[in-house]
């Protein structure tokens, strides 16, 4: 490639072009590896941070170092620049107009915005006077991240088009030096004299996305400072080099984002800002350099990640595609102190088996995992959860979470947890607040889904709470639901608010179904439903499990949404089911890690339902991962086939025997059900004809009784 470049440009010419690059290491690497015979030389000059006058002089000098074939592209660029500058300098004679706008970097928008203007002027001289006077009037202002944007409208733009569009847009430093040109003429007028030349486009003399070659490796931290046309300095960490074989030497980076926490992108195509890309955002090529030094707070995640990437360069691809951990600001993070609050957090796991397993393996939950575990507990009171979240804030590191495609974002997890605590306290206060509401309560001890006796109404929460213990004094309730309904509800408020109490009257949960969102804000706790974690469990295919607190509904485990293809192949015997599950396991797991939520945290298997006539096998029932525990009660006769399925998975029972066993259990259950029903409906027969129900009785001797 280099030899081909030498046929069209001299080494002196290539070195001349690479002088636009600030960093010595990057400049030397570019000179050595990048092919220069494809127009890139001219574009590097055009997109650099040098003034337009300097760029013109460089192109004229470069023309002396290239072959005649390559000179055509340079002549095209010079013609485009000359005609654009001619229009700018003579705008008053052509009855056009200039609009001058002051641009600055806005922290809220995380991108450029207009801070003053546009100021209409009729000539370039007037524009220069305006820009100089503006800066001179405020000498103490920091202009390091500000520049001027000059839009040129010709008479044709203003009068001959339905909507005025600038033909040319220039960018200048605050002192008035022109640096960039965005040429819009050939986008609307197809008959420009140089329109047919491939190098002529709107980004000829401004930011570009040209391929460039970098000397950096995974784990290197890059500093980019393109002020005044961008906020600076910015920092990015290299995750992958040569991630696309078609562009050898390219790098894939991660960088902080106010919107997404941590975002990723191609160093060649990204400016590492949350704002919209525009023609005047310089390429990182010109100012990027390897960096070792102090980092701002939002880049602190790079320190640990850099160590991990230097030790294992392949980790960047795993981190990027989500196969290592959920996207988080600190992907290579550890808890604050070994076991600082681990035992306290694990107590919020309802499943004793998962709790014991995580203790045995010394599992250290991350900050989001710890908060999630606390939130999912169904046995801890709301006050206990609030205290646990507060302990997480005081003892565990801060981080951010986001989904790969930007559909979920927590830029600061500590702030999120504070909002959760504030919201939960607010909900309880609002529920108890006196107002135009009536209160009812119901004993939910038997089942949360069964509707029992509804007591009320009561005019206040206090009266309702007192009545609970009077009305249910002899029943020892363990779960009470208080419902609040508005008096004379308007059309926007027919929903009922609900609050759950335990046996001691402690609040377990509070749900405000209709709340003034404009006044109270959005419920932050909903974000817990949008999270996904691969929390280890001790279960294997063939284990008979149940939901926590529901041993009467056992399930034989077959698959989990956290298992890899290898895990599925290791856990299950050869079968069509295994092949189907294994084929999609890795892809599904990658999707869950990038974009999953709680609906993707389930285990699947098989179980038995009990209709009136016979048991029915159903496949793919599900159980939430953190609710799983071993089933320790004997199975009902109808469900004993699950033992057979387990024997089959262990390789100790053939498929034909399993099918035969299934039929046997089904018939036995059917006979038992029919006999029981028959006995119940015709109970008198058992007294008169016991042999019907007892196969140990010999056939009775029949005789006739004499009539009187």
Question: Keyphrases for this structure?
Answer:
alpha+beta, 23 helices, 708 residues, 19% strand, five-stranded antiparallel beta sheet, disordered N terminus, elongated
What does this structure look like?
With 708 residues, the protein is of the alpha+beta class. The protein is built from 23 helices and 22 strands. Strand 8 (251-257) and strand 9 (261-266) form a beta hairpin. Helix 15 runs antiparallel to helix 16 (413-432), helix 19 runs antiparallel to helix 20 (576-595) and helix 21 runs antiparallel to helix 22. The longest helix is centred in the C-terminal third of the chain and has 27 residues, at 655-681. The chain is elongated. The termini are far apart.
In short:
The protein has a five-stranded antiparallel β-sheet. The chain contains 23 helices and 22 strands.
Radius of gyration: 37 Å
Q: Give a short account of the largest sheet.
A: 5 strands, antiparallel
Shape call = elongated
Taking all residues together, what is the mean pLDDT? Answer: 79
